[in-house]
Amino acid sequence: MPARIITFRNAMSSDSVKDEETGSRQARPSRAWLLVGLLVAAVGIVIMVIAGSGGGVSEDAQAREDSVPLVETAGVQRAEESYEVRAPGRLRAREQLEVVSEVSGKVTTINPDLELGGRIGKGEVILQVDDGDLQDEVARAEAQLSTAKARREQARAERDRQLRLAEIGAAPEKAAEQAVASFEDAQAAFEQAEAQLQTARRRLEKAVITAPFDAIVTSENVAPGTFVSPSQPLATLISAGPGEIQAGLPSEDVSAVRAAIRAAPDGRVEVRAVPNNSSLSSATLTGYLAEFSPVIDQNSRTATVIGVFPEAFAPENEGDVFSDDFMDIVIPGLSETPVWQVPAGAVRQDSFIWVIDENEETHRISVAPIDRSGNTVLLHAPDLSGGERVMTTVLAEEIEGMRVHVSETSP
Fold this sequence. Notes:
By secondary structure, this protein is an alpha+beta fold. Helix content is 36%, strand content 32%. It has four helices and 24 strands. The protein has helices spanning 2-66, 132-168, 173-206, 251-263; strands at residues 70-71, 73-75, 77-79, 82-93, 96-100, 105-110, 119-120, 125-129, 208-210, 215-220, 227-228, 233-239, 243-249, 270-275, 285-297, 302-309, 325-334, 339-343, 352-356, 362-366, 368-373, 376-380, 389-391, 405-406. β15 and β16 form a beta hairpin.
């Protein structure tokens, strides 16, 4: 039994040795194929990386190209040297009157149109104060003047008589001198009485207040039977015809207006008053430029011009034109330098525009707007020569030298 067991184990060992040798011979070809597979995979990965890198550069370039903004432009056009200068001002009556009493007394008569908005013609009675006492003063003054006149004539006759007597030696010279002095006193008394009569008559005239011009009542504070005293305000009147606007012009507008005045055949420049966003008035007025004020406004550093509108407060404008209303005065101007016209959307902050060059890059150009009409702006720009294209599209970011694409449909 022991000998068989030993023989069995040896056989098993021999079989194992054979199996290991067989497995070793089979493993060698499997490793070779594995190496080939790894090599192929590596080549594939390299090809994919190269291909992926090439595709990424193209997409990045396309993204950068798509980031350039598409804009619209418009051409810069040469405009006429003549244009309109517009300046804000306030329309006021050319004449205004504060009605006050100059005498004391009770108001006996009032014009029925002495009410807010009423119209009173030139020379019409506004109101009258009881003048009974004033008439008595005039009567007394007239009596005193008559007495003074009689005494003067009597003194004149005595003076002449004494002078003749003195000439022939029939009376002493002293008597003649006294007669002359008496006449001079009588003459002075006469002149004083005459002045008192004039004063009394003027006071009587002041009891009746008349309109010095065609007027509109803007306020009143009096009623029949009211007792008034000197300097008491009773009403306010403004002229029922002409009005004026005072406005300030900066230096460039002053030059343009001055050039227009020189170019006018008679030096008279027509102007208009037009309502603005702050106006209650709705009518447009025509008038003329009256004058330049010789004084500069120190706060705004502007020159003051005055436009006169003869029919501003005429009856036909009632309800359409109001005193002390804000309006714009429009004055012809004549530029001595080129004027350019661009769309309003091209102007940034009223101070510059973006010009697009042939390389589709932006360049900032400083401008000075001088007039706006609808969607168009007239401006001065020393750096423009005409023919440029200005950007009308507003971008979130606008910088010097920025690349843009110009739309093919740009006007």
